[in-house]
Amino acid sequence: MMASYPAKGRFMNILVLGSGGREHALVVSLAASERSETIFVAPGNGGSAPGAQNVNVDMLDPAAVIRFAREQEVGLVVIGPEAPLVAGIADAVREAQIPCFGPGASGARMEGSKRFSKEFMQRHNIPTATFASFERIPDALAYLSGLQAPVVIKADGLAAGKGVVVAQTLDEAHAAILDCFSGRFGAAGATVVIEECMTGPECSLLVFTDGERVLPMAPAQDHKRAGEGDLGPNTGGMGVYSPVPIITAAEYQQMLRYMELTVAGLLSEGIDYRGVLYGGFMLTSEGPKVLEFNARFGDPETQVILPRLKTDLLEVMLATDRGGLGALELEWEERWALSVVLASGGYPGAYEKGRPIKGLAAAEALEDVLVYHAGTRRTADGLLVTAGGRVLNVTALGATFEQARDRAYEAVELIDFEGAFYRRDIGARALLGRGAWA
Ligand code: AMP
Ligand code: GLY
């Protein structure tokens, strides 16, 4: 039986699963929809939006999600992070005839298993780094001994962004392989993928899909490293901007083609994929190649993509589930968006929590500035405190790249909490052009 949709024009309650900056951005955009009523966020964070409220529902428990959605007459469940997607929450929600945004477990394998997605790309001729995967240490080490550094070692499964090592020496690669098989990532490390190391600028192309049609979002570029000059450890992302001026028109067409081929490949393999497909690309000298797929919106990419999306997000999400995405067109702001992540001192390593956050109202009062909450929490007496590594995403829109950047940093400088740090060079290389990545 098909999920039942409220008639056009009727107001709808929505349940968003997740607690990061991505989810706050989703909630803010859904709150701006003409048809949204109450937006429940489970578990949410210290951020708010008109009509939004945090609720305590375990996002990994399908029965709890369905019970809550029925009780509250939720017309759409939006799944933010990868864990509930990989756990099959979307399958259960759809089986309960509740419309859902996000792929089921079989589609989420594109993110949940690097081996699966690499073999998928191989089957469908989608350019990616050459690779091999192993379940036993001796086999992995024997393969490694025939390679030259640098080489990339990846845990097959979900490892909260910590499962990838770009090893500069074979010794480092050897250690990473042992580390992966040591059980550090649990079942996610039972298979190891060894990849060729590619070079070039990275960018993200996200598309909405109803399983057949593909509607691309504006490209975005994340900054993964903790330190300025793209040095230091990998993080979930320290800043981002959209669009991405260094992508040539030809590269964009190739990336879009690979996303279309991927969706067609999923369909041909009988995998029902509805929601967002995130393509992480490297722009190599041989053309764009796929680094990875994610089965969800990017974080922090969403925090610059959604403020630029003029089309009603709720209508697009419903169309991904119901089909008929082809009847829609996405309209984009011509302005640029740039977002700076304010993080807790020590991130991505150990950091303190519970630091009071000051200056938010002044930052939000600036023109064309949106502050999305990530690791924040409201205490019982209403005080906003830090509660995670990435604390706030300060996004600004501007008529030019420089204007968006300067506004974002102006806002960042008004905000303070003990130990706060951020990168001062978000977007710096974009202005220098392609040569800056050589
Ligand atoms: P992934 O989670 O697979 O995107 O990997 C995280 C990060 O590791 C990417 O954003 C790249 O910066 C880097 N990376 C992953 N795979 C490769 C590769 N084959 N060559 C070079 N860098 C890579
Ligand atoms: N920004 C990288 C990711 O969402 O995976």
Provide the CATH architecture of the largest domain: 2-Layer Sandwich
Total of helices: 14
How far apart the termini lie comes to 54 Å
The tally of strands reads 23
Q: What is bound: which ligands?
A: adenosine monophosphate, glycine
Q: Quickly name the level 1 CATH class of the largest domain.
A: Alpha Beta
Average per-residue pLDDT, rounded, comes to 94
Helical fraction: 25-40%
**In this structure, how is the largest beta sheet organized?**
6 strands, antiparallel
Computed CA radius of gyration, to the nearest angstrom: 21 Å
What is the number of independent domains?
A: 3
CATH H-level homologous superfamily name of the largest domain: ATP-grasp fold, B domain
The residue ranges in which pLDDT falls below 50 over 5 or more consecutive positions are none
What is the beta-strand fraction? 25-35%
What's the CATH topology label of the largest domain?
Answer: D-amino Acid Aminotransferase, Chain A, domain 1
Supply the helix-strand structural class. alpha+beta
Q: What overall geometry do the principal axes of the alpha carbons give?
A: globular
What does this 3D model show about the protein?
The protein is of the alpha+beta class. The chain folds into three domains: 12-104, Rossmann fold (3-Layer(aba) Sandwich), CATH 3.40.50; 130-196, ATP-grasp fold, A domain (Dna Ligase, domain 1, 2-Layer Sandwich); 202-437, D-amino Acid Aminotransferase, Chain A, domain 1. The protein is built from 14 helices and 23 strands. The chain has helices at residues 21-31, 62-71, 82-86, 89-95, 105-112, 114-123, 137-145, 170-184, 249-268, 302-305, 313-322, 360-365, 401-414, 428-432, and strands at residues 12-18, 36-43, 52-54, 74-79, 100-101, 131-134, 151-155, 164-167, 192-196, 202-209, 214-216, 221-222, 225-227, 231-234, 239-242, 275-284, 287-294, 336-344, 369-373, 376-378, 384-386, 390-398, 420-421. Strands 12, 15, 18, 19, 22 and 23 form a six-stranded antiparallel beta sheet that branches. Strand 16 and strand 17 form a beta hairpin. Helix 5 (105-112) packs across helix 6 and helix 7 (137-145) packs antiparallel against helix 8 (170-184). The longest helix is centred in the middle third of the chain and has 20 residues, at 249-268. It is globular, with a radius of gyration of 21 Å. The mean pLDDT is 94. Adenosine monophosphate binds next to strand 8, strand 9 and strand 17.
